Amino acid sequence: MTTTVLRTALHLAAAGVPVLPLRRGKVPFGNCPACKNSACGDRPHMKAAGPCRCPAPCHGWAAATTDPGVLTSPAWATAWRQAVAVAYHPGGAGLTVVDLDDQGAITWARQTLPPTRTVATTRGEHWIYQGATRSVNAVREGVDIKSTMAYTRYLGPGTGTTAPLPDAVRALTAQKPPVARPAPHTLTVPAPAGGGPCPHRTPAYLERGIRMAEQDITEARSQVHATVYRTFLAVLSVHGRCGCLTDAHVTRLFNAAQAKGESPRHCTDAWTNARTRLGL
Fold this sequence. Notes:
It contains 9 helices and 9 strands. The chain has helices at about 1-15, 70, 75-80, 105-110, 165-175, 205-220, 225-240, 245-260, 265-280, and strands spanning about 20, 85-90, 95-100, 115-120, 125-130, 135-140, 145, 150-155, 165.
């Protein structure tokens, strides 16, 4: 598997497509100890620049590279030995992938978008266009746009000729911001019994809880979806009824999940499901 995956990565890199390895679960490798919890000072999922100076492929899409020296370096060797697939950064290659999750989305694309290079996926199709744009998930039912600051799994060259990115796709990316957030994050609930101050307003208590949650997500080695949901549920069970959670706290949890490969849509769904289970 290592030889096949690395060979594919080098082939794509030679064609100018930035690549990175995917581990079991088809997600990027988590932060190395030096970069854990952004100790390196970099948050690659929050900016358009490349990764920090860490030589390991531990920053998701921002670790993608076309440099064969990096791809075959000792720092990447362990990752390739564990890799199950190759991902690429579409925006880094000047491409946009319209990810169609089901037959309904495919039917919409055929009726709405110009024909282009098409790659079959497990559930639907990737329509690949020449030109980069913002990455936005859930622009409509079953449709995600993956380009800048995103990665997508490489599933083969596909069929057809790559067409220029149409205005219809650019219009979809302009309909919502690139990062989806649940609304609202600050929970409005009755005051604690007795009308006293919220017991979780102590900065150290709340900060410790959020850091532990970030750590649990970051260190997940498998079942990332389940780990994210369980962590969100745990945070909400402790802090969800007193109104002490803010946008900044929830954004930190979403960022940790997205650094492990979760999409904004998956984060929103997990957060909403956890709130529903707790009756919030």
